[in-house]
Write a structure and sequence with these properties.
Blueprint: H1 3-37, H2 46-51, H3 59-63, H4 67-76, E1 78-80, E2 83-86, H5 94-105
């Protein structure tokens, strides 16, 4: 193979990675987060209301936390004293957590 062919194949391969990761984030959201946060991120589910989750479509709420705080919440969970408000995400690597944060940011209106 010549250098141009190798470069083209490499670009195609790397170009497909974000699409796969976005699909993984959507799958992880559906499998792990929807039951509380809802498919639309509003938190209007039975469990979401019980846990008093915030509305991710609310721009003011979105502006109240950094990506770093969101990362920590997903990776470590959220506790309120001795009570666990959100369990840490299981089987999710750091790249997937960053993709989940992008998904959450996408709910902002």
């Amino acid at each position: 193979m010549n250098k141009a062919t190798i470069a083209t194949l490499l670009m195609l391969a790397l170009g497909s990675v974000p699409a796969v990761r976005a699909a993984d984030a959507a799958e992880t959201w559906e499998k792990t987060c929807v039951k509380c946060h809802g498919a639309d991120g509003k938190g209007e589910t039975k469990l979401g209301k019980k846990a008093e989750v915030k509305d991710f479509t609310d721009a003011k709420y979105q502006d109240s936390f950094t990506d770093e705080k969101a990362f920590k919440a997903i990776k470590e969970g959220i506790k309120d004293g001795d009570k666990t408000k959100m369990k840490p995400a299981e089987d999710v690597n750091d790249a997937a957590i960053k993709d989940l944060i992008k998904k959450v940011r996408g709910f902002k209106k």
